Amino acid sequence: MSQTLRCAIIEDEPLAQELLEKYVRRISSLELVATFDDAIAAFEQLPDFRPDVIFLDINMPEMTGMEFLRAYPALHPAVILTTANPNHAIEGFDLGVTDYLLKPITFERFMKAIGRVRERLNPDTGVKTATVEHVATTPPLPPDVPNEFIYLKTDKKLEQIRFDEIVFAESMGDYLKVFLTDRFLVTHLTMTKLEANLPADLFLRINRSYIVQLSHIKTLEGNTVITSTGHELIIGSNYRDTVRERIRKWLVV
């Protein structure tokens, strides 16, 4: 049986609030512990309810959802944004949200968001969900020119990213957070599509949520990979043998 997730809703629109409450109650493994129509009240009272996941509206009076996220302690529960404006998604992922739901919210999309919460809480038991893939294509190159880069769509522009710049990529729902040697960017793309466009000899999938460039794996400790940028990434149980086999090729004993 799936672990019960304690849910809290912060939403000032009555119809949207009622719909989220209805969706939560339809799933036996979810428990609704609190509903707020005021972000300030939620900020003060929410810790007492110990939620595992928060459904957070962005456009609220007095304190917006983004202001709530910035002010809330860093170790907050999983957050799913609810918004009528998809442009808020990138800013939300910068603040560590798990997913966003675009209004009007369908039950199917709600279920996908819950699956992503479970996958993030426990990557090895997460639920795979089908997504519509938005393809970032690389312009064709002459046959004698090696393809050493891809183009990613970021904030209404196409940006050329060299393979050697990429440290690792993290799945964030319908988006990817791509960590480079000096910065990170967010792009609307699936992990499957990105992996298909990266050279397999340079990159290694270590988890449903992570793909890492081999040259940036500086430490392998237990089931954790530490990158050159200091990020600690968990190796999924289904990927451990593959990771160790690839690393073993360079092992000097």
TrEMBL record:
InterPro entries: CheY-like_superfamily, LytTR_DNA-bd_dom, Sig_transdc_resp-reg_receiver, WalR-like. SUPFAM superfamilies: CheY-like. Keywords: DNA-binding, Phosphoprotein. Transmembrane segments: none annotated. GO terms for molecular function: phosphorelay response regulator activity; transcription cis-regulatory region binding. The modification 4-aspartylphosphate is found at residue 57. Residues 150-249 form the HTH LytTR-type domain. One of its GO terms (cellular component) is protein-DNA complex. Residues 6-118 form the Response regulatory domain. It holds the Pfam family LytTR. It comes from the Bacteria. One of its GO terms (biological process) is regulation of DNA-templated transcription. This is Putative response regulatory protein VP0538. It comes from Fibrisoma limi BUZ 3.
